[in-house]
């Protein structure tokens, strides 16, 4: 039996990475401890120079990395890899890494879960290829969200077509024209029903205005800028159809954990190659489909739930005493 503290989750400032680690930890169903990792300027050094050390870790975080040591460490992203390797030197802990830790020290990791869309080329007995990214969406959480949000949508006619909107990335904007196109296509799926829309912190005011100008009543709108209760999990739990912009790996994978059909909006040339590879894999494996043009006939369909966290957890169970 694993006791409190026997599993450590390394949690740095990359919220997406932390969410993936927590998804795996929660899927294990065992107690775990979150170890916050903050960095100093030395963290900019490549891992091959940082080695198996705490170089680059801020003093306050170092103070929390003491005995009793864990038997399992779950980490994600390259910057946590030297920390995990250092812990193994102190404790002989098993190391589970999500995504390639980078050159130098890969052999220290007992399991490396590599998203296929990263196209890293890693292979071997300790490498687990996964589709998409681990997440924290489970049947239990969806059931809880359904109870919380069902009455808020109850007055709206069905089908409920939920539109989950990301927005601008560093190099590729989500333009007002794209937002209008998204609203028009999503609206075509909701004939006789309602659109449920939520924007995000990356949705520009201009794109949001264009989208909402296209979405007609009956509708439910949650604007990130306006604040208020976020219906995201309610959408995942209750929507009859999910429409998700393709700029976020986590949004796409979390949507595919829902029982509803998932359509991705990703116009040609908008998303980076890595995201485009993920979309193709989701399409090929039956988890999602491209958002059809308005007027295109759409037949009902279903998909299995996508849960890479559970796949990783099953492998970890075999590693634990």
From TrEMBL:
It comes from Magnetospirillum gryphiswaldense (strain DSM 6361 / JCM 21280 / NBRC 15271 / MSR-1). This is Nucleoside-diphosphate-sugar epimerase. InterPro entries: Elm1-like.
